[in-house]
Amino acid sequence: MSKNLVQFIIEEQRAIAGATGDFTGLLSDIVTACKRIAHDVNKGALIGVLGSAGSENVQGETQKKLDVITNEIFIESNQWGGHLAAMASEEMEDVYPIPARYPKGKYLLVFDPLDGSSNIDVNISVGTIFSILRAPEGVNNPKAEDFLQPGTKQVCAGYALYGPATMLVITTGNGVNGFTLDRDIGEFMLSHPKMTIPEDTREFAINASNERFWEAPVQRYVRECIAGKTGPRGENFNMRWVASMVAEVHRILTRGGIFMYPRDTKDPKKAGKLRLMYEANPMSFIVEQAGGMSSTGRERIMEVQPSDLHQRVPVILGSKNEVERVVGYHLEG
Ligand code: AHM
Ligand code: MG
What we know:
alpha+beta, Fructose-1,6-Bisphosphatase, Chain A, domain 1, D-Maltodextrin-Binding Protein, domain 2, 2 domains, eight-stranded mixed beta sheet, five-stranded mixed beta sheet, 15 strands, binds 2,5-anhydro-1,6-di-O-phosphono-D-mannitol, binds magnesium ion
């Protein structure tokens, strides 16, 4: 019989000298949050959770009802356990401190509770992305600057994908493993051990409506893919765009591919669309652990020193040889 996620993590933690069980406890709370979100996403209109909340988040984006609900679920499920020093979410402007009535722990939890939420009303896959960091030594009331650690410092990263099946994919820096929710017993069971990304691919994902705003290296790469067999690559390429990063990354972990949300000139104040802390870093950790590569085009995403909790970065990730090629085009200028 295959293992459930918590059993898997307990066994992994046993191999680490000095592990206290704190991390396992935190992960078990995150798993509960994802199951609750899977339930609400799955019921949709039946429980009245679709549509707009009529509010805006810190990024000035209109919030969906489910953006607000899932953010609350994540907070509720994770604040009481005693494993966290604080949380930060894409949906909240400031750091969320652990309320005084609960004990505090040594970890920081960073999350996007419902990524791809523009897809929710049309019944297309959405997901949750999370990242776990350590609170700096001696810090009891973490502030935003305590979260501003490069992605290389992540202890764990994962995503839940609410698709035809609900899955949870996770890394603790020891490879990537995927679990499928068995709704009959309410457990995430190990279904995709040791996920790896093929080095080569003939499939790319990008929002092509932004083409005129891209930089020259990305325009060149995509033009060459589209030129196909008769172009400089001498091969036909396929294109996909779900507009849910979680679904996109999951496809790449399953059969390879390259995903790009590059720098564009649409809004000079923003370096891209996706957020470093909530989206780019956790996905980069997973992709690298599966043998892929992740870059802004000019540097490894996980080495970017964050300057702001809600900072955006260009994202180019997936099959190693294609990401390397795009980075090479950036180097050529
Ligand atoms: P969100 O966190 O507000 O849902 O935005 C992130 C999403 C990603 O999942 C996806 O890759 C991208 O935005 C889609 O952007 P676009 O609407 O430009 O296609
Ligand atoms: Mg998001």
